[in-house]
Fold this sequence. Notes:
heterodimer, A: about 650 residues, alpha+beta, 6-stranded antiparallel sheet, B: about 70 residues, 4 strands, globular
Amino acid sequence: MTKKMKKTRNRIIGVLIAFIVLLIAEHMGAFEAFPWYVSFVIFLIPYLVIGYDVLRKAFINISHGQVFDENFLMMIATFGAFAISEYTEALAVMLFYQIGELFQSYAVGKSRASITELMSIAPEYANVIQDDGEAVETDPEEVGIGTMLLIKPGEKIPIDGVVTEGESFVDTSAITGESVPRRVSEGEEVISGCVNKDSVLKIRTTKNYEDSTVSKILELVENASNKKSRMENFITRFAKYYTPVVTIGAVLLAVIPPLLGIMPFSDSIKRACIFLIVSCPCALVISVPLGFFGGIGASSKMGILVKGSNYLEAIAEASTLVLDKTGTITKGEFKVSEIIPAANLSKEEIVCLAAGAEKFSNHPIARSVIEYHDEIHKNNSSLTDDKTELTDIKEVPGHGITAKLGAEDIYVGNAKLLKSNNIEFKESDLPGTIIYVAKGKLFVGTIIISDTIKEGAAESISKAKRAGVSQVIMLTGDNEDTAKVVADKVGIDKVFAQLLPADKVERVESLLDENKNGKVAFVGDGINDAPVLMRADVGIAMGSMGSDAAIEAADIVLMDDDIGKISAVIQIARKTLRIVKENIVFALFVKILILFLGALGFATMWMAVFGDVGVAVLAILNSMRAMKWTKEDMNGKVRA
Amino acid sequence: MKKTYKCEVDCANCAAKMEEAINKIDGVKSARVNFMTQKLTLEADDDKYAEILDAAVKACKKVEPDCEIEI
């Protein structure tokens, strides 16, 4: 609580006690013996104590020409109550208005603080290593590129950099939402905002603080609530008309019925006062941004950066999910997926032969064969064969490799290589990159290399569907066959293959045309699909942590490249939107109900105060639910 | 030029009104009074920035006399 709030609180407690005493006294008929002005003054004193600031603001604002200010409305309503000798009501309205306002600012402050806390990733200092080896605490903003920093266990990495000394586990959860610590050692990059877990690290900074991951993220989240959702725009526009309309209604209600002789002024003024109290739009105006703020906060906690309330709104309505293949559904790493022996050699022998031929090559396909070879030998010590020792290794560009094992020719390469050497072989129709191996003139086997599908990709897609996406489409530059296999494995509805980056934009554009009712979300790794990310209703980039291009172009960034987060963000967005809608409907319903009852004379001023501040407080409490989102929610039931 | 300032506002509706008032000032490209983050973001012409900022603060005070803007 701030000082200002504490002062108001003390004032409220004092006046509340006085109010209760006066209420009891009045019920016991203590004021009946005195003329009216005695009780008027007795009630006026606590009224001024509790309401002087409202009156002050009201007067200042009238002098500025601000007629529909809530202070002014409250003043008129309570003055009206005094005028018709409803002293208790006048005091009560002012008192409860203040209680509500206090509670409102307390609740908003609280939720603001807890959201900021979610984002408590900003480092306070950096330990700069001096020439003499001493570490000095420095403001991160003053640290230049190439500075050596010391990071002790338990400290945050203040600036992005490369480890130069030491080995440790770092907790990346604040940035990626991933709870398993990552092992880092010399030469590896570390990003700011992560916490060093167990031993001292020395790093050399590669960026300035302003360009580091942590300050980029903070800036994004901060700015996110600057982008207004459609709902927020609607409600502020609504509020602009609502207050004047209700106020005019109040004036008409006060004047017309008595003039027509339907009711006395005392009655009509009372009803008009109720209108004035209900005319404040704060409950509506506050609950919308607060809900979105909570939703954005909850997403950040999961390692999902949402760059604006409007994007949260859009992703909630996503009906078509378009995914890029490489780097999004698959890892973008090529691995040996199958070995098919064709003659009397075992799988291991084929691998050894191929690895022996490819060992000097830097081609990614060759590297994956060698990696596979090393891996199976590391995991199985009973295999003693190393890469076969070959001589005379020659690379045939575009075909593969030829070599000699003793007197025998060895061929490792594609179909063209075998054909050009007149070796008979069975051509494979499996998807992926295919390497044929031949020994002498005999075809001995096939090695199939393909991109591996990310773990949990199929589950992520089915979760997204359960979360409300009606069709999932895959775009890829790969050939039809490879694409189909991946699509079938993970449950994609439709595939568009052999697309150039420009074709992808066109595809998404035509999907945008076809899906006028729902939104089209595109998920890519941000490497060459930045234009598509921008063109889609919602562009979701696989974080590729720190990749500026991806963060720049996308509307939503998944910091740890986990496509399982797509369903999470859809669910968070839907929950947020539902909460915001609940608030709007609830606040409008209560206000209209009280206006209606008030006009007919069934509502009291107490109800009207509830209709103003009570509703605001309830809406705030409801909005705070948008912040609460945990991993369990994500893994548990899917909410519509 | 685009800059952000701390801005203490008590009510969400006031923030919306301030934003509207600032956006009406001549030379303002865009203004946002964010109630949640309690920040004012003002983008305006470079050469008249100081003047415009001054006018913006005045406009805010007009809506909510108690509001405080740290410049």
